[in-house]
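User: I'm designing a mutation panel for Protein translocase subunit SecD and want to avoid disrupting the core. Could you give me a predicted structure to guide residue selection? Please restate the sequence first so the numbering is unambiguous.

Assistant: Good idea. Sequence first, for numbering, then the predicted C-alpha cells:
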Amino acid sequence: MKGKNTLLFFLIVALIAGLAFVAINGITIGTFSISPVKDDLKLGLDIRGGVSVVYEAQTDESGADLTKTMEQTKQIIGRRINELGLTEPVITLQGDKRLRIELPGVENAQDAINVIGKTAVLEFDLVTGSVAAKEGMDVSEFEYERVLTGINIKDAYVSKNSYNQPIVAFKLDSEGTDLFAEGTRKASSNGTGVGQIAVVLDGKVISAPTSRVVITSGEATIDGNFTYDTANELAMLIRGGALPVQLEEVQTSVIGPTLGLNSFNSAIKAAIYGIIIVMLFMMIYYRIPGIIASIALTLYATVVVYVMVGLGATLTLPGIAGIVISLGMAVDANVIIFERLKEEMKVGKSLRASIDGGFHRAMSTIIDSNVTTFIAALILFAFGEGPIKGFAVTLMIGIISSMFTAVIVTKSLLRFSLAFTDRKKLYGSRG
C-alpha cells in the first residue's frame, strides 16, 4: 500500500509540474504543439493598449424607447466592428444615453473611430416633385417619398458595372424586396414611364438612378463616382447596418501598449513575489502540509490560466486583482485545514484520523466563505460593466479552482504523503 501511495504521490506531482511547464514554455512533439499560455491569453485594453471611445446619443427618446434604441445601436456597432476585422471589442452602455467602446490592439485608432461613429442612415427615396435629384444634393432640396432604409438590406458588396467601374451591389430581405418592388412600380408608372429613386446616405444623394422597370428580385446596385475603397467602405457600412440615432463623440482615450504592458508586467511580478513568499511561509510553518499546499497552489495558477484560455476570457488589470484575491482564498482554505489538522493531532488522534477530521471540520467554513464570495462575484458580473465584469469572471474562475485544489488535491496528497512518514512534527504539530 505504501508503495502504491508513493507512486501516486509522485505521479500527481509530476503531472502538476508538467502542466505548469507546458503553460509557461509550451511544447512541440512532431506535428503536435501547444503554445505557451501567454501567447493564447487575450489581453484587455489596459494591458494590450488600444483605443477607448465614449459616444452620447443625440435623441429625445426616454424610457423603454430609449433603452431599445441604445441596445440596437450597441448591436449594430458590434457588427460594424466585426466588419472592420477588429477582435475582442468591449461595448458597454453607460447611463441612459452613453456607449463606451474599447478596442484592444487597434493600430489605426482614428480610422476605427471614423467608421464606428458614422451614422450611415441609408435611404432609398422615390423622387415625387418636379426637381430631379442629383448626386451631392441635400435631401431637403427635392420632394420625395421614402421607399426603404438600410435596415432592409441583407448584404452588400463591391461589384463592377459594364464600364468596369466599382459599384455597390446589394440584396434585400423579404420586407425590403416587397418595398423596393412597390417603389420601382410607382417610379415606372408615373405617366412618363421613367421615374427616379435616389440613394441617400446621411441626407446626401450618393446616386440618383432612373427606374423604368419593376424590380422584384430583391437585388440591385448603387452607381456613383466610387473608387474601390469608397465602394468597399459604403458596402461595409451597409452590411453593418444603419444606426438608429446620431452619436456624438464625447471622450477618446488612446492607451499605448508600452504603458499597458509595463503595468501588466508589474502586476505579474507582484503576484509571483507574493506567491513565493506565501509558499515559503507555508513550508516553514506547516512543513509537509506547507509543501503540499505549495504544489496545490501551482496547480491552481495553472488551472486558472488554462480555463481563461479555454473560455476565451480577456485578462485585464482588474482581472489580475480577481486572481490574486482568489489565490488568497486558496491559501486561507489551506490554513484553515492545517490548523484543524493540528487541533486533531493535539487531542491524540492518529495522523490519518487527524487529516480526515481536520478536513471534515474545516469544510463548512471553507464552503461558506467561498460560496458567499462567489455570489458576490455573480452579482458583480450581472450588474457590472467592462473591467468590473473582468474582475468578476476571474474571481469566479479562481474560486472554483481554489476549491478544487485546496480540498481535493491537497487532501489526496496529504494522504499519499503518509507513505513517507507518520511523524506528527513534520505535519505542524508542536507537541
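For picking mutation sites, this is relevant: The chain has three domains: 2-43+256-427, 50-118+248-255, 122-242. The chain has a mean pLDDT of 82.
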